[in-house]
C-alpha cells in the first residue's frame, strides 16, 4: 500500500515508524527553514539602514526570548534523540525467533543461503509475518544491501559479518539493490525480494531442496505430499478414493476387464502417467485420477515408485 508521495510503500513491520520519524524531521526542517528565511527577510527590511531618526534604541539582551529559543530546540532535539534511538535499537536487535538466511555478495551478484542448504540466486525468498535475520558477508569488495520498501540497508563487507533483520507484512515482490559502488557492473547488481505466506515458503524451501542429490525414497516421500497423492492414497491400508499404497507393490490385482496384473514398476509407472490404462476392480472406471504425464519428471516417477515400494 502506498500511502506516501515521497517514499515507496512501507512493507516491513518497522517501515511505518521509520517513515513517521522521517516525516517529523522533514516537516520540522521545512517549518524552521520557512520561519528563519521569513525572519531574515523581514528583519533585513524592517531594520535596513534608514534616516537617523529611525534608529532603534540600544539594548543588550532579552532573557525570556533567549530562554525560549534555547529550550524549544533543546526539547525538539531530545525528542529526535529518544525517538531515533528507540527505533534504531528496534531495527538492530534481531528477534530471537528470526529465520537466519546467509547473504553472500560478490561482484556482481547476490546469493541467499537457507538453513537447509538451499541457495537462491538473486532472489531473497522469505515468509511473511516472521522476522528474517540476514547474516551477510562479501567474497570480494564492499557491497551494500538495500530493500527500499523495508527501509533496510546495510553494508556487506569482506572478512566480517554484518547483521540486519526485517519482517515482511505483505506477500509481494520487491526490488533489492546493491547500494555501494562496487565496480563496473554495480548498477546491475540487482535482485528481488519475494515474500510468501509461511506455508508457501515452506513448500518453496522443500521443493528447492529437491535436487538430484536427494535420495529417491526421500524425494518420493516429499512428492507424495506435495503432489497430493495423499489425498486419495493412504499409507495405512485404508481405502480413500484410490487404493492404499500399503503393501501394494508386488501384489497381483484383478482389473475391471477381468484380467490380472502384477503391481510392478512398469504398472506403477503406467498408472501415474495413464491412470485409465488398467483400472483395478472395485475402483471407479474411468479412473478419477488425473494423469501425471508432463507433471512428473522421470526422476520423480522413479522416486515415487521407490517410495511406494517401501510402504509395506
Ligand atoms: Cu555490489 Cu554495488
What does this structure look like?
A five-stranded mixed β-sheet has the order 3-2-1-5-8, with no helix packed on it. Strands 4-10-9-6-7 form a five-stranded mixed β-sheet. By secondary structure, it is of the alpha+beta class. The model has no long low-confidence stretch (mean pLDDT 87). Helices cover 34% and strands 20% of the residues. The chain has six helices and twelve strands. The structure holds dinuclear copper ion. Dinuclear copper ion (CUA) is lined by residues 105, 108, 143, 178, 180-182, 186, 189.
Keywords:
about 300 residues; alpha+beta; five-stranded mixed sheet; 6 helices; binds dinuclear copper ion
Task: Describe the structure concisely.
With 312 residues, the protein is of the alpha+beta class.
Strand order of the largest sheet: 3-2-1-5-8
Radius of gyration: 33 Å
Report on the biggest sheet: 5 strands, mixed
Through-space gap between termini: 53 Å
Question: Shape from CA axes?
Answer: elongated
Low-pLDDT stretches are none
Strand content: 15-25%
Structural class of the helices, strands and pairings?
Answer: alpha+beta
What percentage of residues falls in helices of 4 or more residues?
Answer: 25-40%
Bound molecules: dinuclear copper ion
State the helix count. Answer: 6
In total, the number of strands is: 12
**Overall mean confidence score, pLDDT:** 87
**What is the H/E order?**
HHEEEEEEEEEEHHEEHH
What is the strand and helix layout of this fold?
Elements: H1 15-46, H2 63-92, E1 99-106, E2 109-113, E3 119-121, E4 123-127, E5 132-138, E6 143-147, E7 152-156, E8 162-166, E9 172-178, E10 190-196, H3 198-208, H4 216-226, E11 252-254, E12 260-262, H5 265-273, H6 298-310
Parallel strand pairs: 1-5, 4-10
Antiparallel strand pairs: 1-2, 2-3, 5-8, 6-7, 6-9, 9-10, 11-12
Helix pairs in contact: 1-2, 4-6
Bound molecules: dinuclear copper ion.
Amino acid at each position: 500500500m502506498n500511502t506516501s508521495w515521497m517514499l515507496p510503500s512501507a512493507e516491513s513491520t518497522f517501515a511505518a515508524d521509520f517513515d513517521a520519524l522521517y516525516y517529523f524531521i522533514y516537516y520540522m526542517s521545512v517549518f524552521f527553514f520557512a520561519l528563519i528565511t521569513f525572519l531574515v527577510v523581514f528583519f533585513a527590511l524592517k531594520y535596513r539602514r534608514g534616516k537617523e531618526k529611525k534608529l532603534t534604541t540600544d539594548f543588550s539582551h532579552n532573557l525570556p526570548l533567549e530562554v525560549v529559543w534555547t529550550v524549544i530546540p533543546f526539547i525538539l532535539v531530545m525528542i529526535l534523540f529518544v525517538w531515533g534511538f528507540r527505533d534504531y535499537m528496534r531495527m538492530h536487535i534481531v528477534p530471537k525467533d528470526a529465520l537466519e538466511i546467509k547473504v553472500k555478495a560478490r561482484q556482481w551478484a547476490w546469493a541467499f543461503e537457507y538453513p537447509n542448504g538451499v541457495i537462491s540466486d538473486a532472489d531473497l525468498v522469505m515468509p511473511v509475518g516472521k522476522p528474517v535475520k540476514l547474516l551477510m558477508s562479501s567474497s570480494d569488495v564492499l557491497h551494500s544491501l538495500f530493500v527500499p520498501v523495508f527501509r533496510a540497508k546495510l553494508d556487506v563487507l569482506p572478512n566480517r559479518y554484518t547483521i540486519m533483520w526485517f519482517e515482511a507484512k505483505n506477500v509481494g515482490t520487491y526490488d533489492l539493490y546493491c547500494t555501494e559502488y562496487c565496480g563496473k557492473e554495480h548498477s546491475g547488481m540487482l535482485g528481488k525480494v519475494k515474500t510468501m505466506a509461511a506455508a508457501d515458503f515452506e513448500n518453496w524451501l522443500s521443493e528447492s531442496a529437491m535436487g538430484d542429490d536427494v535420495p529417491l525414497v526421500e524425494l518420493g516421500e516429499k512428492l507424495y505430499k506435495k503432489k497430493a497423492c495423499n489425498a486419495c492414497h493412504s499409507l495405512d491400508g485404508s481405502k480413500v478414493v484410490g487404493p492404499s499404497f500399503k503393501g501394494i507393490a508386488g501384489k497381483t490385482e484383478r482389473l475391471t476387464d477381468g484380467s490380472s496384473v502384477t503391481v510392478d514398476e512398469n504398472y506403477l509407472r503406467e498408472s501415474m502417467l495413464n491412470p485409465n490404462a488398467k483400472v483395478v476392480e472395485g475402483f471407479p472406471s474411468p479412473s478419477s485420477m488425473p494423469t501425471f504425464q508432463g507433471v512428473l519428471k522421470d526422476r520423480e516417477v522413479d522416486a515415487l515408485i521407490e517410495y511406494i515400494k517401501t510402504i509395506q
